[in-house]
Write a structure and sequence with these properties.
The protein has 346 residues and is an alpha/beta fold. The chain contains 12 helices and 17 strands.
């Protein structure tokens, strides 16, 4: 192995980094293989006339990145060879919904083959998120996070104090926040986001002419969902209705055997509420888009097929923008377009 390692005395790159780069380079070439023993710190130090601290620092970093491992009494061994030369990305998502998967898939399609992305779901749980981040903090080159967390009473928060503290430890050029930020966001890094409050407000203003033909606007906001939604959606909805003097109501869910009246316009967020609503409207023989209006949150191919009017962020742009930050090695703060797509249900 000593013949494979190159240390340039005239280089401005620190010696410990040269050791790291040289070992990774030889792993990528196949010169160093899984479970192969490498020289001890003392042996490496003596061979290249380096201080023991320099070699120890290099080995420590390689251990943190799970590239080498140490076995007490036996020495150091190569513990990771696959994808070592690629850009490694940790993608942390709060829930496994069709919308999140569309963002992830657009990201994967854009990032290309010279990278490896691991997707983990943390279920809006602070403890699970922090454990995933702590466990993997040294093994990845980039961290992509969709920050949505829940309190004990199932209300939505963008960040907790512990999460903010953990994110601040990630170098700002390696952190990308997707989908959600809070107004007083203070973590440095790239952000590709939707503005929940202003997006829904602007979308409803765009559809005002059609919305005004209905007598009452009802937002179905699941405030006790296992995966809670930003309350900024509520704020934007209320602002719109109050400003344009519309009669409105906020419900937790679409209840079975719900009382429906001609002139009701429903805005649903969760798929289960949309399905239940459409079912009941048809059972009561109301005409969707004429007697009962429906607007749904987040676009899907099925809603397009069924002619459901939607308000939706552009998932394609969100995923592609995150990939471009990594590919172009840049930092960016970008609001993703939010679209109001009018179909037959309005």
């Amino acid at each position: 192995m000593m013949k494979l390692i190159k240390i340039d005395e005239n280089s401005r790159v620190p010696k410990y980094q040269q050791i790291i780069d040289s070992i990774i380079y030889n792993i990528s070439l196949g010169n160093l293989t899984m479970d192969q023993k490498i020289p001890s710190i003392n042996m490496f130090s003596e061979e290249f006339y380096l201080s023991r601290d320099t070699v120890e620092k290099a080995y420590s970093i390689l251990k943190e990145r799970n590239i080498i491992t140490s076995i007490r009494g036996k020495g150091f061994y190569i513990s990771r060879t696959k994808l070592i030369s690629k850009v490694n990305i940790l993608f942390l998502v709060n829930k496994l919904s069709s919308y999140k998967l569309r963002i992830y898939n657009h990201f994967i399609n854009s990032i290309g083959g010279n990278s490896h992305t691991d997707l983990h779901i943390y279920h809006c749980d602070e403890t699970l998120f922090l454990n995933l981040l702590d466990k993997n903090k040294s093994a990845y080159d980039y961290f992509i996070v969709m920050p949505h967390f829940k309190t004990e009473n199932l209300t939505h928060v963008s960040f907790t104090d512990k999460v903010l503290k953990a994110l601040k430890k990630i170098p700002e050029d390696k952190l990308i926040l997707l989908d959600n930020i809070k107004p007083d966001y203070k973590v440095k890094g790239s952000v590709i986001y939707q503005d929940f409050e202003n997006d829904i407000y602007s979308a409803l203003v765009e559809g005002l002419t059609k919305i005004k033909k209905y007598k009452k606007v009802i937002l179905v906001y699941p405030d006790k969902s296992v995966y809670p939604y930003p309350r900024r959606i509520l704020h934007g909805f209320k602002k719109f209705c109050i400003e344009y003097k519309l009669d409105f109501e906020i419900m937790n869910e679409i209840y079975d055997d719900m009382i429906l009246k001609k002139g009701d316009l429903f805005i649903t967020i969760e798929e289960v509420d949309l399905v239940n609503l459409v079912k009941q409207v048809r059972e009561n023989e109301y005409s969707i888009g004429k007697e009962i209006g429906i607007i749904s949150y987040n676009e899907t191919p099925l809603k397009d097929l069924l002619g459901i009017t939607v308000m939706s962020t552009d998932f394609k742009i969100m995923g592609e923008s995150a990939a471009n930050i990594i590919l172009n090695k840049k930092q960016e703060k970008k609001k993703v377009p939010f679209n109001f797509i009018i179909r037959n249900s309005l």
